[in-house]
Amino acid sequence: MLKFTGRRLLQFIPVLIGATIICWGLVWALPGDPFRGRCGQVACSAQYIQTMTQKYGLDKPLPVQYMVFLKNMFTGNLGQTFSGLEISDVIARALPVTARLALISIVMQIVLSAAIGIYSGLRANGAFDVTALFGSLILFSLPIFVVAFIGQYVLGVQLGWVKPTVSTEAPTSELILPAAVLAIGTLATLMRILRASVEEGLNADYLRTARAKGFKESRVIGVHLMRNVMAPALNVLGLEFAALLGGTVIVEGIFNIKGIGGLIYRAIQDREQLTVSTVVTLVIVFYLVINLLVDIACAQLDPRSRND
Amino acid sequence: MTDPVIVEVVAEAEKSVDPHGPVSRAEAEAADDRSHGVWIDAWRTLRRKPMFLISVGVIFALALMAVFPGWFASGDPNKGVLANSLDGPSAGGWFGFDVNGRNVYTRVVYGARASLTVGFACTVGTTLIGILLGATAAYSGGFIDTLISRIADMLLGIPFALAAIIVLSTLTTFQTPNWQVEIILILTIVIFGWPSIARVLRATVLTTRNADYVVAGQALGLSGTRVLFRHILPNAVSPILVLSTMRVGGYIATEASLSYLGLGLRPPAVSWGQMVSDGQAYLRTAFHVLLFPSIFLAITILAFVLAGEALREALNPAKRK
Questions:
Q1: Which of B284, B290, B312 has its CB closest to that of A196?
Q2: Are A79 and A274 in contact (CB under 8 A)?
Q3: pLDDT, tens digit, for every residue of B175-201?
Q4: d(CA A251, CA A96)
């Protein structure tokens, strides 16, 4: 297992380089000049544009710019945004908010999908299963911004249970509604996957064996069945958690959350290659670490899934 | 879990050839062909399932609506009578009118084409590429597995909203014709969407790879691709079916979200995503503008999910009687 982990950690390097090159190239390909529109009502002077272009090294060839970015990464000095803010400060403000939002949302998803999905799987095609299926699908079929607006309007404006938007400090109580909105999007998928695996697992030989050995039913379901049905759900959950940490442009916008999604969105609009690539590198590191943890967990749960 | 079909094949193969000589690959494949396979078995079960037939009927009706919208609604979906602005459902307009006084029913009917095309094309694209690469990765192992898995990681690690925003704003302008926007939209979703399918399939194939029926197939001398496609995939495909059938709806909703950000299809094209994104602005005053396209979205998703669910049950060998 140590060897496996070590090899995967080494493989982070090519993935990170590949992904940052893709990002770098994508932002570079965006049309427009990043400095032309920075002078308010009047047109920017050619001198200003030239000075800024030189200051941020945008006159150098693309590969050289990329190497500078890599050097920044390794020396820990991430550089500045075009407004002169340290990129590390900007990230340090946005990340804790997004991380807490993602964590609350993922806990909601785990609790709800486990409770509903497993119960539906155990009593497949019963009344509860069918109700859960239709309920979750109706919520799933609504685009996320619709759920967000309805939630904000009904719970925030009409009933007044929560504040409709999140303040700058983003206390946890205000993040519950946005987290719930984010959870609804993937809850249905997660529930379906768990339900399908549980229902399939119920007919498996290992379960009959466990029962034949005389284990209590709670142990048969809680240990023997769960161990075998968790892998696909864990995979989806890992992807979802990583996606949440990457920020959610729409929900952050609607609830006025100052997180990673909005940071990336603004950086794209301002053509800030360095900021976009730095933040995306961070997001990809999260993604890789989470997936490595999921793979290790799956290999522990199910020795068959070890591919080495 | 031994697949009964394979046991039969082994027995047949032994009978049909010299019991002392080795079985040639051609003979093994001929024997393998004689078993009618899981897909035909599944079809025989499905023919008798009312839930499957109803879902397929709904999908067929929606497909008809997408191809021949004129059969279901008369009039121009973009013709607006401002006097009718935000009027509720009535005999003249079953689903009411939107802010420009356009008939919501007509627009829902005409919107089916763009939405179903996006939903269906993205699902087929991501699922096919995901199955192919995911299965190849798990079955070959070694360097190919590493290569495919790491490319998948690169694409999955980049937040989708970010990728979509950049690609769509780079490649499309306000002058880009809608069919081009649609193709670019679909390709973007497929390129960044296949890795999640591949990842789930890879995990499932890994757990199936050493099952008795796979070893039996290999022992008979069947080729690697044949074992993969005839014996491993049908047994590993059920989590993917659950995911993919749900994704049809997910992708339609993605198109809606991109419309909301101003990056999806634009008028005069009509899509459910656009309608939902327009309708949310009138959530408090004219709920029907949002409600009816959402209902159609929900019905579409439900039909695909229930059909997928029935297919999954029919494909599951443990449930076959």
A1: B312
A2: yes
A3: 778 788 889 989 999 998 899 888 888
A4: 16
Instruction: State ipTM.
Output: 0.76
pLDDT tens figures, A273-304: 788 888 888 888 888 889 889 888 888 887 76
- Supply φ then ψ for residue A86, to 5 degrees: -70, 130
Q: What is d(CA B185, CA B72) in angstroms, rounded to the nearest whole number?
A: 27
A residues 91-130 lying closer than 8 A (beta carbon) to B: none
Which comes out higher in pLDDT, residue A292 or B2?
Answer: A292
pLDDT in tens, A5-35: 888 888 888 888 888 888 888 877 777 777 7
Nearest neighbour of B200 by CB, restricted to A235, A261, A302: A235
Q: DSSP letters along A58-113, please?
A: TTS-HHHHHHHHHHHHHHT---B-TTS-BHHHHHHHHHHHHHHHHHHHHHHHHHHH
- Chain length of chain A: 308
Alpha helices (runs of H) in chain A, residue ranges in sequence order: 2-29, 46-55, 62-75, 87-122, 127-141, 144-151, 172-202, 205-212, 217-219, 226-245, 249-255, 260-269, 273-301
DSSP-derived secondary structure letter, B97: B
Rounded to the nearest 5°, which phi and psi values hold at B97? -130, 150
Q: What is the pLDDT of residues B52-64, one digit of tens each?
A: 899 899 999 999 9
